[in-house]
Amino acid sequence: MERNVSFPFNSTSLPTHFALVTADGINATVKPFSVFDGCDHQVEAILFDLTLQCINIVVGIPANLLVIAILIRNHKEPSTSDIYLGCLAFMDAYFGVMSPINLLNLYLWNSKGVWSAVKFSYGVKDTSGPLFLSCICLDRFVAVLFPIAFGQHKHVKYRISLSVVVLCLTFAYSGAKTVGGLPNFEKVFTGEVLATFIWMVVCNVSILWTLKRPRSSGKDEMHPMKKKAFKIVYSILCIIVFNYLPPVALFPFEDHYSPDVFRCYVQPTGFAFLNISSTTQPLVYLARLEKVPFLSDTCVKTCCIRVSAENKKKSPAQNSSV
Question: Which CATH architecture has domain 19-288?
Fold first, then answer.
């Protein structure tokens, strides 16, 4: 029988009962269902992932709900990327809500039905994050490098259509991940995250290079709007490198690891960095805001770890122009 080398939490196929069949066709022993699926004694990397998921529960869920509330509050003056940000925040909040259910199922319920629901949430996380971030990068890329085309396709219907396509891909991938049994299905995620990572890095580096170029007047000072766009793109690039570089660097070399090492150590470590993006993404968005509604400045500085020393030195006029 081919060995399943997928990570027990983000795995493609459900752990199943294995039966030993005697010569008379009678089942002799049955392996009990376990969500750890063979990694019961190699749990260090799994516990590392669960620790980061606890951060998603405590910090990520409130941060994503706050992002959604801010986007709804500002719906009369929306940014072109707001629909992508809203979908991303909703999916991250959903994934965070599923984390305590996953923990309870690991140590209390040990239910196959609950595990299927948890696997679906992992599929949503695997796909929605990279794809919606790619949409944001595409939006910024066209806005900076092709402003005329951006103005012609600025209507919200284009972004709604693209969001629907992303959601369909997300739910199709999540459904297939929940059902399981597809050969080499884990390579779909490896190909997806590798392609989106390259695309996002190329987009953001191109944008940063374009924004950094001096204006035709010869002045080195960057226009305030360009400076704001530069900060946004730079923050997205930091998220991409921190959260997506580990799986991109580890997963393509699956054949170089033993099955147990890849399943119990390499995959949980890579997915841990991907999963914590449910916290880093909303915090980076909130940190970019000059004023966060519903929260005091002290709370924002504490929760978002915002470095505001330079901003305090600036005049109010300077702050409003950035």
Answer: Up-down Bundle (1.20)
